[in-house]
């Protein structure tokens, strides 16, 4: 798309677990300061693709990535790239809230502390919690355990924790699947607000959610050989109302998947 300003790009991306290829030849541009949704049936490689963007697959001994993942033109898999640095620039929020067994304050401060932050820590914690739309709910109990929060609050705390290290991209892997509808709507509204400052990629099984929150959508499916591939990518409005590929239409209308 000519007007898409990409912050992340994949070129000929293939992912293997041992000798089995699980994602094949993905060429995708991720727009800056927009929300990109990745949809598709279970097992098609959505989360595997997501983890390529911040090299989380490096933590799986059998995983191997071929091709390029470019971050503002820099190959994230280049020999000179420190994966730890990449994970600060490209943060991740997981399917289930995973706060540390520490105080609310210490959860947010954890990343900056180990990253050598020497600024005003209380101000940074407050700013991150405000960005995650959680400050007003927790400002009087910052020394309480993060595990005392509700599920939705815990997920927003995990978002605040990711924001605290000043990333440029936020990856979200099914961030609402463990939440009730009210908490889900709160996270969706937060994503819209955050996309003004951050580029967001979300993996979701929820077609309605992808249509509600995302600007762009990538649809993956499985070949007969059980290898995931990109079928179609475009503006979400077009994908959900007038897809170009009949397989996309079949999936979003529930005829398969």
Q: What is shown here, in short?
A:
The chain is α/β, with parallel strands linked by helices and 257 residues long. It has 10 helices and 10 strands.
Q: What is the CATH C-level name? A: Alpha Beta
Unreliable sequence segments:
none
* CATH architectural category: 3-Layer(aba) Sandwich
Percent range for β-strand residues: 25-35%
Secondary structure category: alpha/beta
Strand order of the largest sheet: 6-7-8-3-9-10
Taken from the alpha-carbon principal axes, the silhouette is globular
Number of strands: 10
Q: Which fold name is given in CATH as the topology?
A: Rossmann fold
Reported for the largest beta sheet, the result is: 6 strands, mixed
Tally of individual helices: 10
How many structural domains can be distinguished in the coordinates? 1
Q: Which superfamily, in CATH terms, is the homologous superfamily?
A: P-loop containing nucleotide triphosphate hydrolases
Helical fraction equals 25-40%
What is the residue-mean pLDDT, rounded to a whole number?
94
Whole-Å distance between the termini? 27 Å
Helix-strand sequence? EEEHEEHEHHHHEHEHEEHH
């Amino acid at each position: 798309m000519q007007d898409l300003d990409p912050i992340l790009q994949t070129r000929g991306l293939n992912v293997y677990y041992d000798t089995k290829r699980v994602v094949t030849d993905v060429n995708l541009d991720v727009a800056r300061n927009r929300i990109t949704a990745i949809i598709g049936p279970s097992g098609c490689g959505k989360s595997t693709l997501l983890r390529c963007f911040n090299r989380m697959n490096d933590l799986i001994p059998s995983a191997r990535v071929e091709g390029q993942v470019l971050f503002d033109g820099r190959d994230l898999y280049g020999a000179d790239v420190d994966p730890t640095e990449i994970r600060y620039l490209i943060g991740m929020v997981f399917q289930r809230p995973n706060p540390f067994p520490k105080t609310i304050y210490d959860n947010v401060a954890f990343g900056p502390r180990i990253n050598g932050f020497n600024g005003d820590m209380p101000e940074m914690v407050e700013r991150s919690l405000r960005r995650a739309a959680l400050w007003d709910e927790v400002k009087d109990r910052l020394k309480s355990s993060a595990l005392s929060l509700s599920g939705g609050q815990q997920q927003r705390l995990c978002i605040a924790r990711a924001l605290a290290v000043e990333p440029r991209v936020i990856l979200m892997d099914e961030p609402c699947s463990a939440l009730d509808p009210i908490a889900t709507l709160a996270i969706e509204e937060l994503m819209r607000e955050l996309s003004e400052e951050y580029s967001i990629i979300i993996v979701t099984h929820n077609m309605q959610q992808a249509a509600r929150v995302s600007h762009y959508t990538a649809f993956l499916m499985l070949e007969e050989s059980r290898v995931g591939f990109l079928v179609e990518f475009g503006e979400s409005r077009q994908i959900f109302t007038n897809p170009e590929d009949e397989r996309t239409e079949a999936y979003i209308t529930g005829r398969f998947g």
